[in-house]
Specification:
By secondary structure, the chain is α/β, with parallel strands linked by helices. The protein has two domains: 2-205, Spore Coat Polysaccharide Biosynthesis Protein SpsA, Chain A (Alpha-Beta Complex); 217-292, no CATH class. It is 45% helix and 20% strand. It is built from eleven helices and 13 strands. The protein has helices at residues 11-24, 36-39, 43-53, 73-83, 154-160, 172-180, 204-216, 218-225, 232-249, 253-271, 274-292, and strands at 2-8, 29-35, 58-62, 66-68, 87-91, 93-95, 113-119, 130-134, 140-142, 144-145, 149-153, 185-188, 194-196. The strands form three sheets. Strands 4, 6, 7, 8, 10 and 13 form a six-stranded mixed β-sheet that branches. The chain starts with a strand and ends with a helix.
Length: 293
């Protein structure tokens, strides 16, 4: 009933995950292991390869460094997939605000975050991770989700696929979530507790893939802002965070200036005009020059 696709590079993690699934899922399942120790695929290519090998109509794409703490979580998942309205991608950590500027799923305003999982970054004893539980623990409509757990109907995956042009292991989750959100509704779901033995490591690949994900649906992002309430404070804060990411990870200064200017003008076109724009742009330019050099 559920096909589970795992891109694996660590046998110890994979065996722990395999055992955890077997004792907790509660429904018929298959595990499709893409052994990336040998193939060296991007995670998007690995997941698409696994999806094509799947035999069930419900797909779950999992990191291998997790374990499950919820009995019969497969039944819970199938119920959500069959009862939620127009489900796209569903997961256990995500955000319900779609910024204009490139951003990963963890937007900087906690009121838009929805999550429930155990974070065990230090890899201490299983079950001893720190609980990250934010937001109402009911299904919530979101735009982007964390890639540790992504579930969807096979038909949704077949229509959108993971973007194989994205290299490495970053941005694949944001990309597919953003693209799926144009036709379906992504959801955060509660009641399915996972423990994740890892933490994120942003780098240049993460930055470039996040930018690519944003640009792939940029016209859709702008359209969602028309006639809706824009959180100006959050948009500006996200822009400032983006500047910091450009300073750390951009391939060169020219690229950073080009991208920061592009999004600055797009922000201004959405909610700043006239003399206010000129004044704000001047101060942003001064700030930008100091930050990026």
């Amino acid at each position: 009933m559920i096909s589970i696709i795992v891109c694996s590079v660590n046998l110890v993690y994979f065996e722990k995950l395999k055992f955890s699934i077997s004792k907790s899922i509660g429904v018929d399942y298959e595990i499709i292991k893409i052994n990336n120790s040998f193939e060296k695929l991007s995670i998007g290519k690995a997941y698409n390869k696994g999806g094509r090998m799947s035999k069930f109509s419900n797909l779950v794409f999992l990191h291998e460094d997790i374990v499950f703490h919820t009995k019969d979580w497969g039944l819970i998942l199938l119920d959500f997939l069959s009862t939620l309205n127009n489900p796209g991608v569903i997961g256990i950590a995500g955000s319900s605000y779609l910024p204009i500027v490139p951003s990963d799923w963890w937007v900087s305003d906690q009121s838009y975050l929805h999550m429930n999982f155990l974070s065990n970054n230090k890899e201490v004893n299983e079950g001893k991770g720190r609980l990250k539980s934010i937001g109402i623990q009911e299904p919530q409509e979101v735009f982007a989700l964390d890639g540790m757990f992504l579930a969807m109907n096979k038909s949704v995956w077949e229509e959108f696929l993971f973007d194989e042009s994205l290299p490495g292991f970053h941005g694949y989750d944001t990309s597919i979530c953003y693209r799926v959100s144009q036709k379906f509704q992504n959801y955060f779901i509660p009641g399915l507790l996972i423990e994740h033995f890892s933490k994120g490591y942003p780098n240049e690949t993460w930055l470039m893939n996040t930018i690519s994900s944003n640009r792939s649906i940029f016209s859709h992002i702008l359209n969602t802002k028309k006639g809706t309430l824009i959180n100006k404070k959050l948009e500006i804060k996200t822009y400032h965070l983006f500047l910091g990411q450009l300073k750390k990870y951009a391939p060169n200064y020219g690229f950073a200036v080009s991208l920061s200017s592009f999004y600055l003008f797009k922000l201004n076109s959405c909610f700043i005009s006239g003399r206010s724009f000129l004044i704000w742009f001047y101060f942003q330019f001064v700030y930008l020059k100091k930050l990026l050099k």
